[in-house]
């Protein structure tokens, strides 16, 4: 692959979906996503991802509006505890005028020779598969 990479498409009404990807180092990748509806920006999102030997961390900044005081910030982290067990979590923070909140979700995955089990526990309850 060649970096930076730009990918996008535009429909007949002028709406655009575009991504810019850049490999900052062997372990660090950055991505920007833009979406417009005709001439109005609908979404912009910036991601940075780190891939270690036994962990992954991602930080996402969504729809930042410095003048309006709103933002969505998402942080993910996954760590291999053993060759079969992965533990991690996600923190979602959002802010807009008159409203602010954060949600933490914890996650785990166990891989056996013939099956995989996952568990997510957070504010919305628990989900197992």
Automatic annotation (TrEMBL):
Q: Which domain of life is it from?
A: Eukaryota
Annotated compartments: Mitochondrion outer membrane
> Could you tell me the membrane topology recorded for this protein?
Multi-pass membrane protein
Q: Which InterPro entries match?
A: Porin_dom_sf, Porin_Euk/Tom40, Tom40
Q: Which GO terms describe its cellular component?
A: mitochondrial outer membrane
- Entry's family note: Belongs to the Tom40 family.
Name the record gives this protein? Mitochondrial import receptor subunit TOM40B
């Amino acid at each position: 692959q060649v970096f930076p990479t730009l990918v996008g498409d535009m429909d007949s009404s002028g709406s655009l979906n575009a991504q810019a990807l850049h490999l900052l180092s062997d372990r660090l990748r950055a991505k920007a996503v833009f979406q417009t509806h005709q001439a109005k920006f609908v979404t912009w999102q910036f991601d940075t991802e780190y891939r270690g030997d036994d962990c992954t961390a991602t930080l996402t900044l969504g729809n930042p509006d410095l003048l309006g005081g709103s933002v969505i910030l998402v942080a993910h982290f996954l760590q291999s505890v053993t060759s079969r067990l992965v533990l991690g979590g996600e923190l979602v923070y959002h802010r807009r005028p008159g409203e602010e909140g954060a949600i933490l979700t914890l996650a785990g995955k166990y891989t056996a020779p013939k099956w995989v089990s996952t568990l997510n526990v957070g504010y919305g309850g628990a989900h197992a598969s």
